[in-house]
Amino acid sequence: MEKLANIQKDKLLHFFYGAIISFVGVSVLGLHGLWLTAIAGAWKELYYDWWLGKGKPDVMDFLWTIFPVVMILAYYLTLYLPPLK
Helix H segments across 8-58? Predict the structure, then answer.
């Protein structure tokens, strides 16, 4: 539990908003809605932070934003793969 306390607040916010965008995207568009999360994360880092200079672009911020996508894909993968013997 101590490692969770060491995660930066910024990274947790990226994860939180990535999860919200992923949930809404999957609810509306199915698995194709996960692209919304990747696009939103890339837009925030490349356009808002880098191009406009309103923040510090960071690859880890992008990865924390799309981590919920990985979790949702792993969940859906377990639904369709046969169980291990």
Answer: 9-29, 34-42
